[in-house]
Structures are given as structure tokens and as C-alpha cells.
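The pair is quoted verbatim as follows:
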Amino acid sequence: MERNTKQKQPITPNSKDEGMKWVIVGVVLGIIVIGLWLAADILERKAAKVASYAKDTTQTVSQNADYDFDLVLTEQNCNGVDGEVEIVLITDANYMDFTRVAINSAKQTKCPLSRYHFYVMTLDVSDSDVKALTALQGKDVRIDVLPQKEADLFYIRDTHVSKTSLLKYYIPNALPALDKVLYIDSDILVLHDLNKLYNTDITGKYLAAVKDPSWFFENTHVLELNLEKRGFYFNSGVMLLNLKKFREDNLIEKLEDYTNNNFRTYMDQDALNVVVGDDVVLMDFENNAMNFFFEHIDLATLGQFYNRNWRTYEDVFAPATIIHFASSKKPLGTVATKDEFFYMLQKLWYKYYAPLPPLD
């Protein structure tokens, strides 16, 4: 058989196709460059905006300021205050001291006829830690410890937010007999009776909370949550929760889904802000008086944000029902100088810490 000796011609790329490929590559690279430029521009404008608003306290407090005194709290009227308040906290071994101080401060500042029932959801705490918590029980103060398992959810490491905070999602399951509960973070002080806060009307809403000045800063991560229509971002450190509505609307599953599928900075706080939508009641600042922002923004600016006419830091914190140390700067282990208003708050925190026996 005669072999076909005709050579196959080599396949060469079509010049038009090759040119189009490089055009597409160029367009993609251009889009990436423009995207990076826009992101940098947004961050730069954000930084400029924050800088224009945020005045460090060293600029607003004179060099001779001295906060080495006891904050005198606004006197509370206990006439007619008679009710039970259901309160839940979440803690692990790292936050045991803070949790004990939160409970002790609430115990010491409640009205005589108020009755507090604390539920402490714990993660990996020792038997001695449990005994230290239940030792705080007293007249009209009951404490139940509820051990939990770690939430199997996607977790973004933050400087002061631990994975333990994701247990907030499971409060409705941990307290099946309750339709409503007051959640408080461990890094707080309770300085006035909680009955008024607890009796906030949340009918038809998921929760009540205090707006967070992160909205004022227009942090990039807050803008990404698309809350413009609602017009505020709330802090999840103090929340009055409608557990019945949480269960009816399967909110736990929705929070899990959001957490597992979205890269967010403040984990549970971002998830709660998005998932609950418009079903939120805004409470007065005094129900979650966050100290952090006053270290960076002047009193007049924050007063305008919260519709207050503050002249001194005593005006801010003396009437507070709850003071919240809402940053990585905590009263335990922080060295504060007497010219910082934080020194005044730190002294107040130690007032409720000092009488407690040391943990084993």
C-alpha cells in the first residue's frame, strides 16, 4: 500500500483570536487596577472623614485633668420598682472575672424589690469557676449555669471578639421556657436597676438595642452591610431579646447561614444587624453606654449623635444603667493614667471587683 507522504500543515493560532485574547486580558487587568484604586480611594476618604470627626481625648482634656475620684451615680427612684428580670450572659474561662463583676454590680445596684435571675452560658469553664459564679447568689438573686458546646460556625479572628460570642445565636434554645430575656456582655457594669430596660416594649420585634457609633464613623464593613434604608447599626453587647419570635421565624438557622457565608468583621454583631432587618427597637444610650468612642470623638459630636448635651464625662456615665467596656481595652490589666477619663471608670469597675475572692 502506498503511504500518503503529504505533510500535515502545523496548526497556527488565528491572529484575530490571539489579539482578542490579549484585549480581554488587558480589560481584566484594567478592571482590577480600577477596583484597587477605588478601594484605596474609599479607604482614604474614610480615613479623612474619621480624622475630621475623631478628636483624641488628649486634645479635649487639659493636661491638668485629674480623674482620680469616685464617679457619683445619678440617684435612682425605686418607688414602685418590683419585678423579676431574666438575664443571660455568655462566658468562657478568659472572661470569668468580668462575668463575676457584671453580676456583682447588678446585684449591688438593683432596687430592693427587684428580683434577678441570671443564666450564665459557659464554654470550657472549670468546676471551681462554676462555684465562683453560683457563690454570687443572694437575696432575690438566682444564678443558673448552663454549659454549652462551641458553635461549629465560620469564625473570623478579631482582637477582642472570641468565638464564644457566637453562642448568642443559641440563647433561644438554651432558655426554651422563656419568651424574653435581657442579654448582656460580660465586660459591663450594671449601675442602675434593670426593670425599666427589661420592660421595654418589643412586641412584634426581634430585639431592642442601642445604636453603635460605628455608623457615624461609616466604617467600610458597616457600609457593606447595606443598612442605609434602616439608617443605623446597633451594638450587640446589650440586647432585649424576643425569644419567641426568634423561634417562630427560625432566626438561629438564618444567623448560622449568614455567618457561614459572609466575611464580616464583628461576627455576631454584623450578622444580627443584617438578619433582624427592621424588626429592632432603639433604646436610649444609657442602656449601653460604650466608653470606647469617647476616647476618640469629642463630647459635642457624640452628644449630637445620641441627642445629648454632655459637658463632662461624668454627665455621660453617671446616669448610665449599663456601662460597656466595648473594645480590647478592659479595666482589668490596663494601665491608665489619672488624666484619662478611663481611670475614673476603671476605679468604678474595681469597686465591684475588689471584694470578690480570687479564682482558683
In short: Residues 1-11, 45-62 have pLDDT under 50 and may be disordered. The chain has one domain: 84-353. The longest strand covers residues 84-92. The first helix runs from residue 15 to 53.
